[in-house]
């Protein structure tokens, strides 16, 4: 018997088995609010639906080799989960003047059936075409920021919040709910109305941190994106000063009904029924993940906003870092094998700045990425524009010709006048003190581009993202 | 041994056991949109919170006997269920000018702890006071209209909708989604976008039936109150013409992915995960029920609107009619032992019309009530005003002095001018053809009354409702 031949048959049989098994994939897309999740998914779906005929995806091997036969939208697997509103996004882009797709506020999903010609000779003999069912799942990155709560008691969480208030800008915003908390006799029997009042004031504070200070690191994350839980007591809690949260109750019997007792109960309920539930219902099922990061807006907003973004993004990455805590292993078996970091809105800086943008993103995610790679997850980092809103151009600066971008600024929607500008140099490293003093960078939002419904959306490197995320599935 | 004494001790022990067991009660409040659920619960909570000191509850025996010691709001049992917004309602009533509390759109709950002096000598010796934990649960009556779906197949539901379209006013509104459905090749592979488009158009039609025609009998009920299910495929279905829904599929294999196949799947999913879930999570736990009915608005809107309201209310009562179908017995064990029918907004007609209003309500609910009573459920029927917006007065009609009402009409909010009017006679029977021809009735909405935060809200017969619903619990 010829062993090498036997082994070769076995390899082919393995390949075949792999192909038949590899028919489904759940690709998750996340990022903080404003990172561009909706635009990314809208463009990704658009490229896949129209990509077989459009020749806009040269970096995707399957399309380059003309083995991609096309895609169709089919019924999503979970009937009670919101559908990702692809059509709504396309309608917005094709309105006059075009507008960006509306942001999403919770989990949504969409399923595409991708058809292709397989590479394997054996498979091709058996079957002319193969199919990949691709589920794309969108969820707010903010929800992953709640992960650390799972390992904290209520008192520990209060300590954490107290230390975060050392930031002077937060101190001022926090004064209203803090004053309400100071007056509280935390061991007395709780008044539901007062609990709800303080919780509402704390939620207002979180909204202000987000909107006025450009902060992303909001805890608990569901307070600003409550969905179906709006008005429920599980969201009617708030932090106490650490000294109070740690003060023992005088009356053990009354404790359960006291302010402190209720705050502890609700904190535990939130961990168990809100945070864990997301991991168990959704996160556990993801095969691959894209983390989108908008590095440009925080460059505009200043040092603190940038640091907060960096902190939040790295906090998000802890969820992919199964090894670090036994807690996560208990919650879900590691499954994700590839993770893409993408700096979005690359069309909002000139093309010669793209490599700086990639390097900046690499530094932003460096810490989290190291842990993720240690888990055996393959990662890649790139800069992309999901829907390209500008053209490359040239501008004159001090008599020199420099790379610039050209498009309609969001502020010129009425006049529809084109502007050519050079937003400045993107730092290739985490910006140092002198960067913020010079303020050499000004990133301006552009209107969505005018596009035709018959052509795929213009983009930068969506094809490179597809190649990294899906490329190996089309053997 | 003295048997009669033994028996008397046994009775006392039974009484005692009953008292200790009777510590919790879940009182459900429902009604169609606009029936006045929020005003009823706001006033009920207000009367109980302030009732021990205010002397506004003479028809409640406990209060009359000065055995009611007071009530406090405490933590509701389900932390993930929205809290009934009592404080928001009171703030609206105490704003200037006062406004009615905002309507609710789903399930919400609130818990009160009622403290009283028990009647039983034995109990009084053991303990000076006793406590009843009262949960008040608010839910839309529309959700109960989906009950019949549980016994229908998709094709049977389509037949039912088709027959309901014989109403000529509906036919016109229905033309848009019907045209979209006509063009569908229901055995071809479904296009998700088109499914969603038609479902949205069907949902628009349901909203129009509700708003333009004043119809309440909307199926499926969740389409107009989607809550967390907004945008999910479980709400992306619609009825087909009965002949189409009954046409066998040509290709059994393709059926699952065809329009007809998906419509059938989603209809079944809706029954299983939306309709049944409400019964299992909430309905099964109710001890007593109030069904609120606004008989006055449909008297304004005309014959069809009145008939639709009557149909819808009786349809709601099917959910309390356990014996009728074995399905309901399988879904939940019968538990409700008292059911109150209340005609709301009695302050919007003159006081001499209240007895007519009760009689009219009795006729409206006659059919459903008969079945409910057959189940052994005790019922009562009354006319009430949760928050009294008018005063009784006298007016002159053709030289005669008649009973009238006086208050600020909703249309006079700006001028805050008082109006005295006689809205007409409420028919004491289901109105016949000549009633609609004469149009002798005109019911006008009044502004919420100006009230003091230190006094309980003015009302008509909330105390009578309390006596019926809770009275026997305070032994």
UniProtKB/TrEMBL annotation, chains A, B:
| SUPFAM superfamilies in alphabetical order | P-loop containing nucleoside triphosphate hydrolases
Q: Where are the transmembrane segments?
A: none
- Give one GO term, molecular function aspect: hydrolase activity
- InterPro entries referenced in this protein's UniProt entry, alphabetically: P-loop_NTPase (IPR027417), YcjX-like (IPR007413)
Q: Which UniProt keywords apply?
A: Hydrolase
Which named protein is this?
Conserved protein YcjX with nucleoside triphosphate hydrolase domain
Provide the taxonomic classification: Bacteria, Pseudomonadati, Pseudomonadota, Gammaproteobacteria, Alteromonadales
